[in-house]
Amino acid sequence: MNAPLTGYTVIDLSTGIAGAYCTKMLADGGADVIKVEPPQGDPLRRWSASGADIPAGDSGALFKFLAGGKRSVVTSGAALDRLLAGADALIWTPGSTVADQISPLEMHRRYPHLIVTAITPFGLDGPWQDRPATEFTLQAWSGGTLGIGRGSQDRAPAHVGGQVGDWVTGAYAAAMTQAFRVRGLRDGHGELIDLSALEAQILCLTYYPVTYFEMLGRPWRTERKPTVPGVAQAADGLVALGCGTAQQWHDLCAMAGHDEWIDENTTLTITEQANLHAEELYAWVREQRVDDLRDLASAFRIPNSPVGNGENVTAMDHFVERGAFVEHPGGGFVQPAHPYRISGVTLRPASPAPALGQHTDEVTEQDLAPRPGPAGEPDSDRLPLSGLRVLDMTTFWAGPSCTHVLAMLGAEVIHLESTARPDGTRLIAGIPAGEELWWERSPIFSALNTNKLGLTLDFQTDEGREVLRRLIATCDVVVENFTPRVIDQIGLDFESVRELRDGVIMLRMPGFGLDGPWRDNPAFAYIIEDASGLSWLTGYPDRTPFEPYSVGDPNAGVHALNALLLALEHRRQTGEAVLVEAAMVDAALNIAAEQVIEHSAYGALLQRDGNRGPAAAPQNLYRSADIDEFDRADSWVAIAVATDTQWEALRDALGQPAWAMAEELGTAAGRRAHHDRIDAELAAWCLPRSSDEIVETLWPAGVPVAKVMQPHRQTELPQLRHRRFFEFVGHSVNNAAPHSTLPISVSHGPAHFHHSPAPLLGEHNHVLLAQLGLSDGEIADLEEQGVIGSAPGVGGRARAQRR
């Protein structure tokens, strides 16, 4: 059986992690990815985060992982034009001598059949289109450096390590390329997908802070507080323990032998309550062994995991049993397996990377035939997923973030809740339960569920399960993210679902997968981050790691989206039903791949280093003179010098001070060796200046620099306003508020991505059930029985038991 994208030709004119990961995902799906390189090769071939020596003529291990299964050609000019004429898609980033000769807009005009995905820091137009940036400075602009209060107030904020912004940008680019391919198959017309890495980072490193602030009039957090317990020191190593709900906090108190900490009438958040007792809780954890703690936490249904890094994660029993890591086929290192499993669908196995120019003659002789231009006008419906019906049985962030993209791209998405168990994001708005319609006022729920229909159904009852089966029979796709045992208990595994609907696609998004010893462990984003290694590189070397507490969920969502689009293509070709298993942890292991690759290839265990990193030197946060909106001297700028040219620009912008003119600072190695000295000088220069002055001095000169933004201030960025990244969405209960969209601008796409607000609880019960053939009387009976409803309360099963 061919892989879904077999026959799809993609020209890879990218350099860096984002473009390489995008084209890797497409290649794994079966696409023929032709990597066009300059004669000196992609700079990523020489990359090693640990600084390992790469022999001449060889390539670094990360490049080999990302380039597996691709073909390499060295070409330009007319030969490159012929390649583009015969291709289906072009993935483009600036930065190579070949790519910089190509205009994505011109390629889109010249080859109207082509899907052109351009990945840039800020987008192809707007006031910041030509400004320099690195993944580190983009985190600062996005608000991701501050996240939702990561770290502690006694030090500078800590960015999320591991260049995660580049990885999630690549995953988004692959998903958007696949999605607009669906529309291209319908009408033959291509698309220019202008993808902004800044916007991708906003979606994956912050938690809808603008919508939260605008709807509730306050930011999510006003100061940085450590997650308690989070990653903690136990008697024999690090352990991760989490509290995502009030019940889990109560259970943790009971587990630690401190029932007196439980206060069900408090107005404090879970984080605030945990911080009150942090010292005693950490002392208790230090007395316990990791395995004992994890066994106890699992018994209490408290999220937990070991703390992964490049050295230990490959040996964890769950990952060993699931085959989460494989040997690179060329030998020399270990790499993550595919981030998802698709039943009956062939994904390209781990493959060797090409040598520079290895396939130049082969591709030249192949002489791809030019693709025909589109016939006729574009389809009037520019939404690629129109006509697709999706049952969304997901909750919190990971699952809804996947189905939300489907809804914004045209699918009819039915978001299923119950009155006994509403979507968890309805419950975390910080609004007292006594206020009128409190469950409708969650900005997080609103931000994740626009364009969806709302249905409540207690499928723990016989009546509810019967209605659910009838609904599934009308749906193309069923998505769920419960722990596996829940679906098993109600008899809705894949075999049962496909008996209800021919050709159904069932997308399951468990935390740790459908098998393995951790299968039934509760999994919130921070635990996924801890287990996979994403937390390991975040924070300071003299403290336990900080949990990113952001990327685990949306990263799982965008990887699940990629898997679902592959499954849809397989169904288009074969008509077959498909089971997709998109475990959150497998997605996280893939974007943390560099840690395992560096350790297994070079014996180097990558370590967290505050705000320094391997991609730039100097790279750090520096305090400015501003007093922030909370009356604190806590305003920062991010500066990252990634090239010698940028260093020269920094020297000149500073007025060529004597310290900066030292000869040893002229190279990256010299700057890294003298990073402490540079930091001291830059800190002294920044401290008496405002953030605006620092940015206005350095950025026009060509130095990557950014303000460390409070996340809820994202709408103040002129680039986002220019690209209309936020759209105002009205609501029958809440004031209209800005809602983030997708990290793309499309030349022939929809003018707006939001067309309706998030649904009220059970808002569409009657219309959806009537579509199934239920009479008004039958619908009223279901409401009387508590099977459906429009306000939180007991469900139908509880009502029956009370009778």
TrEMBL record:
GO terms for molecular function: CoA-transferase activity. Keywords: Transferase. InterPro entries: CoA-transferase_III_domain, CoA-Trfase_fam_III, CoA-Trfase_III_dom3_sf, CoA-Trfase_III_dom_1_sf. It comes from the Bacteria. This is CoA transferase. The lineage of its organism: Bacteria, Bacillati, Actinomycetota, Actinomycetes, Mycobacteriales.
